[in-house]
Amino acid sequence: MSADAIRHREPSTGGKDSPSHVRTWTLLVVCVTTFMLLLDVTVVNVALPDLRNSLNASFAEQQWVIAAYTLAMAAFLLSSGSLADRIGRKRVFTLGLLVFTLSSLAAGLAVNPLLLSLARGVQGVGAAMLFSVGLALIGQEFRGARARGTAFGIWGGVGGLAFALGPLIGGWLTTSLSWRWIFLVNVPIGILALLPTLGRLRESRDPHSRGVDTAGMVTFGLGLALLLFGLMAGNSMGWDCPPVLFAFGIGAALLGIFVAIQQKKNTAAMLDLSLFRIRSFNGVAWGTFLNNAASLSTVFLLISYMQNVLRYSAWETGLRFLPLTLTLFVVALLTGRLGSALSPGLLLGTAIALIAVGLGLVTLVKPDSDWTALLPSLVVLGIGMGMFNPPRAAVTIGVVGPARAGMASGVGQTFQQAGVAVGVSGFGALFQSCVESAFTQSVAGRQLGDRADLVAHEVATGGLLDLGKLVPPSMVEATTAAARVAYVDSLTEVTRFCAVLAAVGAVLAFTLIRRKDLHGSALSSSS
Length: 527
Hints:
Blueprint: H1 3-8, H2 20-42, H3 48-55, H4 59-87, H5 89-108, H6 113-141, H7 145-176, H8 181-184, H9 186-199, H10 214-237, H11 242-263, H12 279-308, H13 314-320, H14 322-338, H15 344-360, H16 375-398, H17 405-440, H18 443-448, H19 452-460, H20 476-512, H21 520-523
Helix pairs in contact: 2-6, 2-7, 2-9, 4-5, 4-6, 4-10, 4-17, 5-6, 5-9, 6-17, 7-13, 7-14, 7-16, 10-11, 10-17, 12-15, 12-16, 12-17, 12-20, 14-16, 15-16, 15-20, 16-17, 17-19, 17-20
């Protein structure tokens, strides 16, 4: 099918607006589930110290508690979106909600790191179903630039709020109850969301689809999962170790097979590759990938900085992210309501450019700084991230007709989550390398001799509070000071790279995204 056909295929419902109560319930359910699944991206970070002590988890095991969720979500997003177009979006969304809720229960009851990581992986599968289909459900019920702009503004604000509030909510639950409640809290929320999902949401699908592309789903999901596994495991296991090399080799081969499958003239193919001949889709997809790789990896590093260097508790760390959180929420709502009047390329390019500036402002932090040195960065990041999500969602599904919204949404969300996975693993590895190099070259590092590498690794992995166990009492003060300098200098060095990467994403958005590429259902003035 040609790119033009994708853009102009008529929606399966004939283009009529759905009743207002159906639209309201759809937006409410999608926002609640989006809040829940995005919360689980960041909420775990602040609970890691308690989780480590409770389950006796090593640093690598803690990494996999986080990575399993992101990896599984990224691997299953495209399959979920394509499947929803074929068998029904409400059906896939409902299944995803059930999977996410039950796996959250399993995670909260886990008795060791392995079971927790496995439950987190299943959580990621459920989250992929919810995340990929949610945008398509909103697009199905809301037609026209004004109505979609408002809906995506609310969705973007809620999603950004969830991501930013993760440290605060995770800190409160961990401090007041237990780390287990960061997962168990999803169970009653999931049950409550399931009731209107079953009773209020409308079913929709692509009436022209034929069959399910099982081979495509298997090759893409497994291939992407192996590539991301290689990226995440390379830093801890070694980039030249056999499992990592195997993951990269087999993953790349499977993705090559997937592309060959999709190139066949087969109406059951899960991905119509002509989608990538649309300039605007390439702009939003690659802009999103670069932006998420840069910005969200920096957010993870800033959370670690506040806890390990500034020694704030989980709750105190969350409070200090409120400038970003509140700014993001307000700007997202305003962007959704007013953004339809502006060029989507201009809006998205400006948003990513502001994020690049916000990342650059992290360099204001010095080894002796308090958290207030981050205020300019947090505020500017909040503005950019708030501006980014509503038009990103609108353009992602706006380049196709409603009948193909699940596929487009799945591709777009895959780029988003793959960006997070690649950014966190890649910039995390760079940060660890910078910290270890800076510390071993410091005066204190040279004085430690053979123990310098061990201490440097502990500093790079967040063990600044435990240095007294690794060095002689007479060297604790000097070692701690050197560790703080190495940590902060490495943080600012890595965020410079992140800022440059985001700036490239802004250029792509400015130059590639055009209003004329959008489908008629995204351009009409109906509300």
